[in-house]
UniProtKB/TrEMBL annotation:
Cofactor binding, per record: Binds 1 FMN per subunit.
Cofactor list: FMN; Mg(2+)
EC assignment: 4.1.1.36, 6.3.2.5
Organism domain of life: Bacteria
Name recorded for this polypeptide: Coenzyme A biosynthesis bifunctional protein CoaBC
Function comment: Catalyzes two sequential steps in the biosynthesis of coenzyme A. In the first step cysteine is conjugated to 4'-phosphopantothenate to form 4-phosphopantothenoylcysteine. In the second step the latter compound is decarboxylated to form 4'-phosphopantotheine. Catalyzes two steps in the biosynthesis of coenzyme A. In the first step cysteine is conjugated to 4'-phosphopantothenate to form 4-phosphopantothenoylcysteine, in the latter compound is decarboxylated to form 4'-phosphopantotheine.
Phylogenetic placement of the source organism: Bacteria, Pseudomonadati, Pseudomonadota, Gammaproteobacteria, Chromatiales
Keywords, in A-Z order: Decarboxylase, Flavoprotein, FMN, Ligase, Lyase, Magnesium, Metal-binding, Multifunctional enzyme
Annotated residues for binding of CTP: D99, K109, P125, D126, I127, L128, F143, K157, K161
The family this protein is said to belong to: In the C-terminal section; belongs to the PPC synthetase family. In the N-terminal section; belongs to the HFCD (homo-oligomeric flavin containing Cys decarboxylase) superfamily.
Pathway involvement of the protein, from the record: Cofactor biosynthesis; coenzyme A biosynthesis; CoA from (R)-pantothenate: step 2/5; Cofactor biosynthesis; coenzyme A biosynthesis; CoA from (R)-pantothenate: step 3/5
Limits of the DNA/pantothenate metabolism flavoprotein C-terminal domain: 7-214
Organism: Thiorhodovibrio winogradskyi
Region (Phosphopantothenate--cysteine ligase): 11-220
Length: 220
């Protein structure tokens, strides 16, 4: 058995949430711990890959062997990815990127007053879709967090974004996922799929790495 099947393979991984500032002290963000992306970075470096981890704000320690690039917002994550994606073989989008950001960012703390506040939100770029649409594009693995119709929604995302592979998990129930230590996943690719039962995220990362290697090798 080969000890370092990812030796010489360059990976770019996004992880964590993004924070979209409203003012210097407030933000809109997603509920994401970053654990899945950090576990993937850890496991893949152990398997020999060169990993750059572009991470939104998390409380996690840096994986020892990966290069960590810290960002706050989706715009910063987008810039950090685009700067480096040309030199990577595999792109894994494990970040829970905020789909929208406030149109305006106050430079001073917004004051409380008695009336309502209207927030106008504008869309953020879809980093994963943009990477997958490059020519040449790296091998792309995306994530899909869904509250219902897991397989159908994930397969639609795989096709619409033009991905090589997607890891889908149900969120909002007892099945793990966001902000948890365990995850149950459904891996989908062009003509196949594999179910990963509820397991710790480090173990899930090993299973994803195994499936990723098989798909990556057959695609190159
Ligand atoms: O469309 P949806 O947000 O559900 O897609 C999830 C996948 O797309 C994840 O892999 C996520 O990291 C990625 N994504 C992204 N940039 C965005 C939104 C999602 O890279 N702006």
């Amino acid at each position: 058995i080969q000890q370092q099947p990812f030796a010489g393979v360059r990976l770019l991984i996004t992880a964590g949430p993004t924070h979209e500032a409203l003012d210097p002290v407030r933000f809109i963000g997603n509920r994401s711990s970053g654990k899945m992306g950090y576990a993937l970075a850890q496991v893949l470096t152990e398997l020999g890959a060169q990993v750059i981890l572009v991470s939104g704000p998390t409380a996690l320690p840096a994986p020892p062997l990966a290069r960590l690039v810290r960002v706050e917002s989706a715009a910063e994550m987008h810039a950090a990815v685009m700067e480096r994606v040309g030199e990577c073989d595999i792109f894994i989008a494990a970040a829970a990127v905020a789909d929208y950001r406030p149109e305006l960012q106050a430079s001073r703390k917004l004051k409380k007053h008695s009336g309502n506040i209207d927030l106008r939100l504008v869309p953020n770029p879809d980093i994963l879709a943009e990477v997958a649409a490059r020519n040449p594009a790296p091998f792309t693995l995306g994530f899909a967090a869904e509250t219902e119709a897991l397989e159908a929604n994930a397969r639609a995302k795989l096709n619409n974004k033009g991905l090589d592979m997607i890891a889908a998990n149900l969120v909002g129930g007892a099945e793990g996922g966001f902000d948890r230590d365990d995850n149950a996943l459904l891996l989908l690719w062009g003509d196949g799929q594999r179910e990963l039962p509820l397991m710790p995220k480090h173990q899930a990362a090993r299973e994803i790495a195994r499936a990723l290697m098989q798909r990556y090798v057959t695609s190159t």
